[in-house]
Design brief:
Radius of gyration of chain A: 24 Å
Number of helices of chain A: 14
GO molecular function (chains A, B): carboxypeptidase activity; metal ion binding; metallodipeptidase activity
CATH architecture of the largest domain in chain A: 3-Layer(aba) Sandwich
Subunit structure (chains A, B): Homodimer. The monomeric form is inactive while the homodimer is active.
CATH topology of the largest domain in chain A: Aminopeptidase
Shape of chain A: elongated
InterPro entries (chains A, B): CPQ, Peptidase_M28
Largest interface: A-B, 70 and 70 residues
CATH superfamily of the largest domain in chain A: Zn peptidases
CATH class of the largest domain in chain A: Alpha Beta
Distance between the termini of chain A: 45 Å
Protein name (chains A, B): Carboxypeptidase Q
Number of domains of chain A: 2
Order of helices and strands of chain A: HHHHEEEEEHEHHEEHEEEHEHEEHHEEHH
Keywords (chains A, B): Carboxypeptidase, Endoplasmic reticulum, Glycoprotein, Golgi apparatus, Hydrolase, Lysosome, Metal-binding, Metalloprotease, Protease, Secreted, Signal, Zinc, Zymogen
Oligomer: homodimer
């Protein structure tokens, strides 16, 4: 690209920045200028990217119950203490403690052919074990249920339904394909299988296995469950076509340990006019153990803290109380989210709104609103203030796992929404690393979130 | 991120896919279904990503006049010939032939300190040479013009104004900072300087120097001009603060050679009803030489060809003639764009529309329309058809460099617009490589472009 296009586009953009008629009151003009201040501060002096560099690089993966999760708690507390907030504190919460262990090994042995090794990873919560059995491939839970018992008994069930690439919103494909990972092992065990292999929930074609939480059922044998990469799943499927009776060996040393004491980290700016009305903005501090947990959900944590910093640095003291919360244990239990709501209820706190960032730190698109239709319409009136920044898509949607338990206590739950195309390529894998995060995309998200918090704190609901 | 959010979002998305009232006629329904077909084909069986893999990996950087540019011409022709189009042909065009050569070396020598090496690259079109001189740093052309002559004479002028990070649309920042690269050397030479160094046009902080075209002026001495990386520029600026009289040595072996014969590559599907009305969709086949030219503009080329393939594969034969054009020499001369318009005019061709993709292959956002206000409004009526795909931002904008010369011959020029945040990080550098392109983002763009071409070919203007 040369200059002509860019230069002309610049002029048109300037023209486009003029506020639409609906927003031309002097209040709207003040809001527009204040939001511009938040963006300028985020883009010129943002600290979230360097915070994320530390969290991902110096602490790294931080599964609930791990020493790294504990380090992350202390780090989050220190970062917010240095910001000079009105209050920074921890909320104690007991969390599950599952460990992957050192051994994850898988190999297919076709009749006469050479053994073929596979990259695998245990699904979160799986029991360990050592298996050797034939494999039966299915595309879905209903297909498994329809199979004659003798075709499943004593075997490993291989769930190989891909995420649907034709959905534009990748989260929809993730949600639909997820039953295999979530319930596959239990459903397989009910039919006498001794283990489960699951195609990774990814739209990329690569060699990274994706972990993620799975559930056993009471009264059903707990059998080991592992993910294959998408390439690995394709390869195993091809081997099975050529040799349906091949044997598959799986060995994993993962295990569940007793619950561990951990914490949510909370930082707060007291509201200048209505201190008892609370706006919570959060992400989750825990991550899976395979990588640095950069997009899931380091970005949500540094963004939430940055919202407070932006409000302070721009002098836009909120009229209502604003809290950044780094929730513990979203990935495998949501104990932090449940505890936060429980304590808020016990203290009789009034939550105006809760916002979560847990879809990655990509270019912002808007917000998903989980609340009454009238509230959605009220928030949509602010669209013109967000459109010049490309984040004006305000529509009914879902808040987030951590803030979900606040549903009956908050007037509205809000999910920060950013570009979803790359997220599931790296989600829950060794590839979810700091270098995948673009500084500007992250910073634009920070400012979008801060702008909505600013408006909520000024106008209420 | 766990499942709850994704699953709920999926349901809401489904609801959101219902067409708005304005688009509920049966024609609109047909259009909606046909556009869905284009997306499905793009996402399920797209070929653009593999085409790009070949162009970037097997051919690589392809500056006008280079053997690789010639290979790219033959490759483009073969790809389109295999698609079974109605017509594939080359348009001969003479292009500049500038070569970087083997040597690019730069070193600062502070008084007593150790020499400091810098990554540099010649700006496209620069003369070579070997310089050793003091450096004078300026932030702008006006600042240079205001300096006393003796402060510039015999020195190297160092233009160090960064791109403005507070602009949301990165192209605007690129356009504004670009005068240094474009005109810096000539302006410096007018004041007696012997060379120019320019801060790279990038919003990233890294060690990649960014090349790009620059212009000399008739009657003004042609002095060598090189780019420093953004980190390098910061480092040189700091060195100059500590030691304003340091000497800088620059040696470059670049040179201009005689013009070379090259080609635009054109593929065509004849319109079923109005074959004489033409819709052109294109990107530029040439790239800078430092890397693979993946986002600039390999993506635009494979997208343009894919538009034709999508129309064929879905059976949506266009009523008007649709052409994919791989333009030669956008980067340093635009000779291909000029030749295409010249030949179209000479043949009396009627251009309904010309569309260009030259802003990278990132997630689509919409289209910039360069044409009469009534045409903008007409195209905006189609927004509801694009909104479910996230590419409904249809607004006044700029078409593109290659299609610019068609301005007076086409009813409208259209720039395909995608997320702009990452583009200038890699633009014109060694980092513009295939791995930076996300398959889905590219494919979503292909379908967006094909959808607009489909509508234009059906309804005209």
């Amino acid at each position: 690209m040369q200059f002509l296009r860019a230069t002309l586009a610049a002029g048109l953009l300037l023209a486009g920045l003029a506020l639409p008629a609906a927003a031309q009151s002097s209040t709207a003009k003040t809001d527009s200028l204040n939001i511009r201040k938040l963006y300028d501060e985020a883009l010129l002096r943002g600290q979230s990217y360097e915070n994320l560099r530390y969290l991902t690089g110096q602490i790294g993966g931080r599964l609930s119950g791990s020493p790294q999760a504990e380090q992350a708690v202390q780090w989050g507390k220190q970062v917010m203490e240095k910001m000079g907030l009105d209050r920074v504190y921890l909320q104690e919460v007991m969390v599950p403690h599952w460990e992957r262990g050192a051994k994850e090994k898988a190999e297919a042995k076709p009749g006469k052919g050479k053994p073929v090794s596979f990259n695998v990873c245990a699904l979160g919560g799986s029991v360990g074990g050592k298996l050797k059995a034939q494999v039966v491939e299915v595309q879905s839970l209903p297909e498994l249920r329809a199979l004659p018992a003798e075709q499943v008994k004593g075997k490993i069930v291989f769930f190989n339904r891909p995420m649907n690439p034709t959905y534009i919103e990748t989260g929809r494909a993730y949600g639909e394909a997820g039953d295999q990972r979530r319930s596959g092992a239990a459903e397989a065990a009910k039919r006498g299988a001794i283990g489960a292999l699951v195609r990774s929930l990814s739209l990329a074609h690569d060699d990274f296995p994706h972990t993620g939480t799975m559930r056993y059922e009471d009264g059903v044998t707990r059998v080991p469950a592992a993910a294959l990469s998408t390439n690995g799943a394709d390869q195993l499927s091809a081997l099975l076509k050529a040799n349906p009776t091949l044997t598959f060996e799986l060995e994993m040393s993962c295990r569940e340990l007793p619950d561990v004491k951990s914490y949510n980290v909370v930082g707060e700016i007291k509201g200048s006019k209505y201190p008892n009305e609370i706006i919570t903005v959060g992400g989750h501090l825990d991550s899976w153990d395979l990588a640095q947990g950069a997009h899931d959900d380091g970005t949500g944590c540094v963004q939430s803290m940055e919202v407070l910093r932006l409000l302070k640095a721009t002098g836009l003291r909120p009229e209502r109380t604003v809290r950044a919360v780094l929730f513990m244990n979203e990935e495998n239990g949501n104990r932090g989210g449940l505890k936060y709501a429980e304590l808020a209820k016990a203290a009789g706190e009034q939550h105006l709104a809760a916002m979560e960032s847990d879809g990655g730190g990509f270019t912002p698109r808007g917000f998903g609103i989980e609340g009454p239709a009238a509230t959605v319409r009220q928030l949509q009136q602010w669209q013109p203030l967000f459109q010049p920044y490309g984040s004006g898509e305000i529509a009914p949607g879902h808040g987030g796992t951590d803030i979900g338990p606040l549903k009956d206590q908050a007037k509205v739950l809000i999910g920060y929404e950013c570009d979803s195309q790359r997220y599931f390529d790296i989600h829950h894998t060794a590839a979810d690393t700091f270098d995948k995060v673009n500084r500007r995309e992250l910073e634009l998200g920070n400012a979008s979130m801060a702008a909505l918090v600013y408006l909520l704190s000024k106008y209420g609901l």
